[in-house]
Amino acid sequence: MADVRAMLAIGLRGQLGLNGHLPWEGATDRAFKDDVARFFQVTRGHVLIAGPRTVATVPPAATADRTVVTIRSTDAPGDVIAQFGDRIIYIGGGPAVWRSYAHLIRHWDITRLPYDGPADRWFDANWLTLAKNSTVTDNAGACDVRL
Length: 147
Ligand SMILES: NC(=O)c1ccc[n+]([C@@H]2O[C@H](COP(=O)([O-])OP(=O)(O)OC[C@H]3O[C@@H](n4cnc5c(N)ncnc54)[C@H](OP(=O)(O)O)[C@@H]3O)[C@@H](O)[C@H]2O)c1
Hints:
20% of the residues lie in helices and 24% in strands. It contains four helices and eight strands, in the order E-E-H-E-H-E-H-E-H-E-E-E. The chain has helices at residues 30-42, 52-55, 77-82, 95-101, and strands at 3-10, 15-17, 47-50, 67-70, 88-91, 107-112, 121-122, 135-139. The longest helix has 13 residues, at 30-42. NADP nicotinamide-adenine-dinucleotide phosphate (NAP) binds at residues 8-9, 16-18, 20-22, 50-54, 57, 71-73, 75, 77, 92-97, 100, 121.
């Protein structure tokens, strides 16, 4: 079975995105900077698949040491995953992508950050229930978010 994972960061109320970027884009507090650094450290060497707007936010330098793939809604999730054999695959979002791939995700790593501003993309805790036998790393009470 493919090792499919998700790693995401959310604000205090489940905020995920704003205007095509992280809602806390440009925040310099340590928690925000550490979270971005951890994401690129953990996903290094693996496959990162995401929708076009999310892929557009991946810094070009990060494509050197991971496989970044843009997926479209016309791609069948099972076929996409099968392309990568036994590699570790991270489903990178956005929300419609997590919803469509949730049944394949074996591990969710979710960090809640101290952000309480606006958003136009939101986390949905129901995604976590769509996979059988999936596990969750809940950083800072992220899974207390029920929207
Ligand atoms: N906080 C975090 O950890 C985090 C992580 C990632 C992204 N984000 C944020 O999320 C936002 C980007 O997400 P987004 O939803 O706006 O755009 P997106 O990343 O382009 O993802 C959504 C698009 O993916 C495509 N897609 C591919 N496979 C799909 C499938 N099986 N089912 C449904 N759609 C599929 C669809 O486009 P087509 O129909 O055109 O193919 C869909 O419109 C940004 O604000 C970004 O910063 C936040």
